[in-house]
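Sorry to interrupt, but I need a hand with the structure work. I would like you to pick a protein and set down its sequence and fold. Please put the record directly below this note.
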Amino acid sequence: MHGWRQFRTLLEGIAEKYGRDFRLISRWEPTSQTCSSCRFKGGKLDLSIREWECLNCGSKHDRDENAARNILVAGGQSETLNGQVLKHETTAKVAAACEMSTRIGATTR
């Protein structure tokens, strides 16, 4: 087995053991190029560009945070508890609430 395939198999086993969902998304999904607020695909960005503004809705994005939100959506989950994009910076309190809801959701599946 190749390294990535072996790693994926390991993660699948751990997810199954702990009753978690394990989902794959296409490696070609443009997660850092799509606005997580309005889903507008802005196009390819040079890797040196770390922040960008959506040409459609004007939302400002950190490239990595935007990609993370889009990965959650592509994996079949909403990016917040109420299914709407957070418009404020994540605080430790919000992060803890999101983690707790993830734990609760995982135990009820």
